[in-house]
Amino acid sequence: MDKPYLQHRYLLSFDSRDIGHIFTDVLVIGAGAAGLRAALAAAGNAQVLVLTKGQTTQSNTYDAQGGIAAAMAESDSIESHIADTIACAAGMGDESVIRRVVSEAPDAIAEMIEWSLPVDIEGGKIALGREGAHSADRVVHAHGDATGKYLAETLIARAKDHENIKIFENCFVVDLLTDDGDGAVVGALTFHSRYGLQMLWAKQTILAAGGAGMLWRETSNPPCSTADAVAIAFRAGAELAEMEMMQFHPTTLYIAGATRALISEAVRGEGAYLIDREGYRFMGDYHEAGELAPRDVVSRAIAAHTAKTGSTHVFLDVRHIGAERFKRRFPQIYQLCTDFDIDIEADLIPVRPAAHYMIGGVKADVEGRTSLPGLWACGEAACTGLHGANRLASNSLLETLVAGKAAGIEASAAASQTNAKLTARRITSVNPHSDRTELDLADIRNSLRSIMWRNAGIVRSGARLTETKEIIGFWGSYVMDKEFFDPAGWEVQNMLTASMLVVECAFRRAETRGVHHRKDFPETDPAWARRQILRRTEQQLVVT
Ligand SMILES: Cc1cc2nc3c(=O)[nH]c(=O)nc-3n(C[C@H](O)[C@H](O)[C@H](O)COP(=O)(O)OP(=O)(O)OC[C@H]3O[C@@H](n4cnc5c(N)ncnc54)[C@H](O)[C@@H]3O)c2cc1C
């Protein structure tokens, strides 16, 4: 890995004596479902501070549609949900993690209902949707396709009501603070739009800062998903895992110039067809499960089919589902289509794949423990082994609830064992001044996203990944040597760092597995049924 990405421990030069201090027992970075669930679990016996770089309504959680997976039907079983998750993980799932998360799913749902999540009911029972690669109907949803919004609002309201929880919005975490001695995480350096830089000292820190979709030009993720979690954890020396594993969702609305809004997999679960511009229903040519094949298969099939037919996109055909049923089941998608003048009873919905879910992240066990003392990670920021090399639909919201709760309990227990009163320490960072040319940050951000989409996207090759490493290395030599004084600059630095790690790991994994497809190594290699763990030492990238 190129030196620019390794040379600075902190993005900024600072002296803790010049900055204001705040103290808390447990610091939670991120106010999506993982962060809020962790905060609520920790607040039973600790003072908790939750940070979000935007508003609490800006997160992947808020935008989630399909629902939360849980084996709750009489005809379903926990074992079947476990088996589906293991099968989807393509030889890399951690069975003990899968067992724990899936087994706790029904209780997690019951808890959310108790906390007033308005799940949909049909015939007096919880309505359960079907999604790709699930062998049973087991996706719990709220207000049709607005599950994320209602889940987020349930958790936000409860956290705001809790006397031990404070939430700071518009508070950007620039870096984790670490102890010079044992490398333990002792809090975070933050920037608040009104208060500027602050030192937030914590007995324990939970990183729940979400995913990385913005690294790719086409993404279903909201703008906050700039991979800050992995970049700041990497700079602090934490181990990361599976950074090559980005899941691409097959169907986002494709209208030139519009953001790529997701068209949930549940739409295919309700019977939608994928057709090309000739009206041909092509999925049968690529997989026996047709439209309900695993996501990676459908995404690759669309990529292959559009290449073969020379089109930019394909279509979802929902005309036979009927407007009433569609509107009831997918009110948000219905509204989205209406906004773009798509009459779902007469028109086809243009779609194409987009980066959707970051499987890789900060290596953590199912209770959030990372390789660094004092640091916990959960949700999309973490990589626990639940998803292996491919994520089963609707298992991620489930993970935020189960692993978020566990991380909160464990982190607050660890905080309560630290009897010493928190005090400010002296931490200084001095980065050498750089006189090198300044590149246009917006240009770099756009160019990075384009090259990641083209060369580190759905189908990859060693030659293109090598080229991409060189290009990102070059950009880094002009961007990572600078200091910026607002989140826009730090986000680009984080995006470059995380992209470099994705490309490095994608290059090293010389096989095809799960969401990672190498056209120069199209077969799965049993020797590669292992995790790629990476971390930064003084001036080196260590990959094992
Ligand atoms: C459109 C869409 C639909 C989806 N549908 C489903 C679904 O139906 N079922 C399912 O299981 N999964 C779904 N997913 C995935 C799922 O929503 C996410 O994996 C999950 O919500 C992640 O939750 P989280 O709490 O880990 O992160 P997020 O919800 O993304 O929250 C991250 C938080 O971290 C904060 N943050 C980030 N960087 C910083 C920083 N530097 N400083 C301070 N704060 C920071 C953000 O502001 C935000 O508050 C969907 C995702 C998308 C994008």
Task: Explain how this protein is built.
- By secondary structure, this protein is α+β, with helices and mostly antiparallel strands.
- Helices cover 33% and strands 19% of the residues.
- It has 3 domains: 3-10 and 429-528, Methane Monooxygenase Hydroxylase, Chain G, domain 1 (Up-down Bundle); 14-65 and 146-245 and 359-417, FAD/NAD(P)-binding domain (3-Layer(bba) Sandwich); 249-355, Succinate dehydrogenase/fumarate reductase flavoprotein, catalytic domain (Flavocytochrome C3, Chain A, domain 1), CATH 3.90.700.
- The protein has helices at 33-42, 60-63, 78-88, 95-103, 105-114, 147-161, 228-236, 265-269, 295-309, 323-329, 331-339, 395-417, 441-455, 462-479, 487-508, and strands at residues 14-15, 20-29, 48-51, 68-69, 121-122, 125-126, 128-129, 139-140, 165-168, 171-178, 185-192, 196-207, 240-241, 246-253, 273-275, 314-317, 349-358, 361-363, 375-377, 382-383, 428-429, 533-537, 540-543.
- The strands form 6 sheets. Strands 2, 3, 9, 10, 11, 12 and 19 form a 7-stranded mixed β-sheet that branches. The chain has a 5-stranded mixed β-sheet with strand order 20-18-13-22-23, covered by helices on one side. It has a 4-stranded antiparallel β-sheet with strand order 14-17-16-15, with helices on one face.
- Helix 1 packs parallel to helix 6 and helix 13 (441-455) runs parallel beside helix 15 (487-508).
- The longest helix has 23 residues, at 395-417.
- The model has no long low-confidence stretch (mean pLDDT 95).
- Residues 29-35, 51-54, 58-61, 63-68, 147-148, 172-173, 208-211, 220-221, 224, 228, 262, 357, 379-381, 394-397, 400 line the site of flavin-adenine dinucleotide (FAD).
